[in-house]
Each structure stands twice: as C-alpha cells, then as structure tokens.
Amino acid sequence: MSRITARFESLRERGRKALIPYITAGDPQPSVTVPLLHALVEAGADVLELGVPFSDPMADGPVIQAACERALAHHVNLHQVLDMVRGFREQDNETPVVLMGYLNPVEAMGYDTFASAAHSAGVDGVLTVDLPPEEAGELVACLKTEQLDPIFLAAPNSDDERIRLMTENGGGFLYYVSFKGVTGASHLDVQSVADKLERIRHNTGLPVGVGFGIRDADTAAQIAGFADAVVVGSALVNRIAALADQPGRIALEAPQIIAEMRAAMDQV
Fold it and tell me: Is the pTM of this model over 0.85?
C-alpha cells in the first residue's frame, strides 16, 4: 500500500478530509523548499504536492508561472527537485509527496530512470499535467513498477469512460479540476463541483480531490463538505510571492493559510 493510499484510509477512519498544498520547488530560492514542506505539515497538510519548475507551464495561471520563473532563475531542475524530496525524507518518512509537472523533463531523463530515481528519493505519486491517460501507458507502467501512484486530472467535461480509464491507469487519488481554465482563477461554482463529484464517484473507487479556485478557509470548508481532498495552490503561492524578498520568513508565515484551511475543514 502506498503512502498516499494509507493516508487517505487513515483520514477516512478519523472522519477527516485531506488538505493538499501545492508549492513550486525552488521558489523563491532552493533553500526555502524543504523547511517550507515541513512547515506545511506542521500547519495541517496531509499530502504535499511539489511542482517541478518548467519554462512553459501551459495549464498554470500567472501566479504559478511566476513561481516557476523565480525557481528557474536559480536553475532548479528535476534532479534538484528529487534531491529536495530526499532532504525532506531525512526528517519525515510518513507524509506523502506528489510531484506535479510537465512531461518534457521526465522524457528528457527517461521514464525508467525517472521512476527509479523518484522512488529512491521518496516520491509517492506523479501527476503529469500534459499527459492524457490515453497516452500514458508507458510512463504508468514504469511508475507502477516502482510502486509510484500515477495521478490524473479529471475536468468538468471528462466523461464516464475517461474517468474509468483514469481510475484503471491511476492510483492514490483522482484530481478533479473544478472548472475549465488555468490555475489561479476564482470562478468556483461549488454546487456544480458537488454535482460532478457525485457522478464521478459512480465511475471510480479512488478518493477524489478538488483543486483550482480554492482561495481561502471558507472555500476549503465548502469543498471539504463533499470531496475527499482539498488542493490549494495559487492562494499559497501568492503568500510565498509576497515574501519572496524575505525568504527567511516564508516557512514561518506562508503556511498560516494552510492552518486556517485545516481549522475550517475540521469544523465540517
């Protein structure tokens, strides 16, 4: 059983919903990332989503695009991201870590090499934004050989057949994108998301997390009312950006938004 599956089972037994913060590795500088990951866990994160910086993050809005630019200014690459996970594992061998990024760096490393290196570093799941499930067979096989969970993005227009394909090829959890568009937008229709998740659950046995548009504690609590996990990215990355010129304060102050969300979610 993967760390991700074990974590969701533990949360289910305790009647809790998972809180999954996203940060871009190396933003605003590489030395910040590992202390920030630990601080996020202390603030109430259940699973960590670590973004691999990429020069053309087409699914991301301006907030995360800027985070990638800050990280790439320090030449952060996939090898260094894996080193960060390895550094995190020196003190935390329990919190699941999901790498989120684009296919190009993985292809450049080679699927087998990447999967082996990710497993060795302590990665638990991989979400490749621009790799649809219909074309993911080769990478999925490599990931599963190394006991890594392939995680897929479901969208509002994903039909039943596609959800079943994501479930068959995937693991860990299914990430539902709450609306069409890029990360950081704010037009979240909570009732529409709830209705879509009810349909998705007929076609998957995986936990379902919801991301895009989770901007504050109130939004997180609303989504936690029906989803298995709440994923927060741009709202947290915005906090990091505001402290970019004071990196020593980031791990102390940025996780406060996660603590606020955790408290609100636990009241649901």
Answer: yes
